[in-house]
Fold DUF4179 domain-containing protein.
Amino acid sequence: MEREHFEKYIKDVTSHVRFRFDRRGIAEELREHMEDLYEDLLSQGIEAEQAEELALEWMGDSEEVGKALDAEHNPVLGWIWLFCRRALILIFLFFGIPALFGVSCTALMTGYDAVDTFFTELYAENDVVYTVDVDQKVKIDDTVFSVKNLKYHEDGTMEIRYLSYRSPFWRGMYNSRFSLYDCEINNGAEYVKEVDDWTEDTYHVQGLYWDISAYLEDFPEDSQWLNIIYENGERSFTMEIPLTQKEGEE
């Protein structure tokens, strides 16, 4: 469902992203994040209008978020990639296919679309072996920690995509976002990893609402579980995520 204030926020954010070919993908990501926030707030008994306002507040200032995303989606690199992709497509079409088959203009355009799709998918994450959608969240004092999905890459890296945002009702002594730092990740067997400041990560969105990917190297591909364990006195939790239902498997 499109919400007027959400769409205005998305439009404001993407207006700062100079590489326009990335704007649609960014808009979809932002929309999904905001809807997740909104639904989570509704589940806590917050009225719809207030939930929408809080979701917008937690996303952060649209100009700051937009400029941060513009820096991440570098327009120079974007245009270089786009130019190279188009050039390779044209070389393939006009020197490869016509020479072999003598195709018509209609066939050339059909072939162009097919090859363009190929390079688009190549630009996307084509090294992902499997994806696991996760719907688990915990609350640590003022902060909601939610795992969105897992992606296992061909090089043995497990990517954990998670969200972190504050509850509006907490007034305790702790008042910061939650990250995987100081957590233990294991697979229920031989793999154990302590997440620390040296762990590679990517910040997709920053502000009061955080969207982060953490990357764990050498995670066994045949693992059946991914467990996240956090222990800090009484502030602790264990999140057990089954890997048995991987994308593409029955």
User: Anything to note?
Assistant: The chain is about 40% helix and 25% strand.
